[in-house]
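Problem 12. The chain below contains 488 residues. Write out its predicted structure in token notation.
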Amino acid sequence: MNGWLPTTLPRSNDPKYRTIAQAYEQAIRGGQMLPGEKLPAHRLLAKKLRVTTGTVSRAYAELERCGMVVARVGDGTYVAEPDADGQGLGRLTAAPVQTAMALAANGGGPGAAAVVGVAAASRPIDLGQNVPIPTDEAYLLSATLRELAADERLSGELLLYQPEGGRRSHREAGAHWLARMGAPGPAERVLVTQGAQHGLACVLRAVLRPGDTIFAEALSYPGIVALARQLRLNLVGIEIDDEGIVPAALERACQLLAPRALFCVPTLHNPTTATLSEARRLAIADVALRHNLVVIEDLVPAALLDAPPTPIAARLPEQGIVIGSLSKAVAPGLRIGYVQAPQDWVGKILAVIRSDCWMTAPLCAEIAARWIEGGEIDRLIAQQRTFIDARQAVAAEVLDGTPYRCDPASPHLWLPLAEPWRAAEFATALRHVGVLVKTADSFVIGRGSAPHAVRLSLSGARSDDALREGLTHLARTLRNGPEGLYSA
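Solution.
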């Protein structure tokens, strides 16, 4: 499964490696390649462009230096995930569009022509990014900031240093938020972090050491891959089926590899939307207990459910850790997350937070706490669910007859592809009509093979009409099949 390929190089006074890097910069910025997508192997690209593998290696190194891609030892090079604001990628050149146009002018083929088309288009329809649909949070933020501005004493306190784990009131709000997702616990065991990803990073640094083995679902949240690589952890994927983790597979892996921890998303799983049954949760908790496995559970998607099932980690009071945030249900820009850990781990995680950033910004934590304790959060989530219901209805109508997997509360769908489609070429075909999706290889853990499937975010499109248009293009592309690619 190879990503976007420039089939020729434009005439340029720049070194060839830089021209290649500039072409890939434009492909990434223009939506031709999505975060997590794998770049072509060095030898394949070198053969295609008639350059040396050393030239390709220098091009990829230049992209990595600027933060455009990340290299995984023994696995390949992948498009980097952007920052929370989508602006985290570096820049190689001030004129990437000209590079793409030169590729097309010099016979760059349909792939190069599509770069120009996407760059020239006003905006593609994004079915790749999993973000909440805007509701009343901006209006509510304005009102909350006015309230804070009127309280000079509290405003002054929020500008001071705070305890590493957050103010008492903020930790209590976090405890209420996690209890809402089936993980009740005292505020003393809840820590405030700068989003779920920061919380996960702190937990991994507190619980594991370089070289330790950690398990995750064979398809899982891509953020765990980046963290495992940075912390030099041995990340191993565990077999999943239509319901989620297979307990027997987890048992076998524990016997063979002596892992330290399991990271999992058993409720509204990303990307497949599956939710583990009660029987599976009990079986996995039993395996974890017998093998002294620390279970780190991501509860972020569960916030969209009225009555989430009891987390696996909540069944393991001495070795279960849960992580939640407001990112997917309310507002990712608040950058507030909550970690609930056994008392023996709290001090170690606090030490990591202190060394990492000293504390989470108290202003954002205060806003989140007010929304949680005042009940505004419930209204925002109710609005989010209403919008998701409407978009699920659009998907059901447009994709009628197309087999896909979803949960009514999930903001995304999981679309397995029938033969002869391959995920990479399907995503490429969609880019040509201005639609972005995420392929399964963005979620693969370890060296496992990716199924031919894509995740479709219903919330990334700007409107219901844009979603309908994007899904209509997708359905048409599915029907036409890969033999229709690039045909005039």
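Discussion. The longest helix spans residues 376-398. Students who got a different answer should revisit the alignment rule from Section 12.3.
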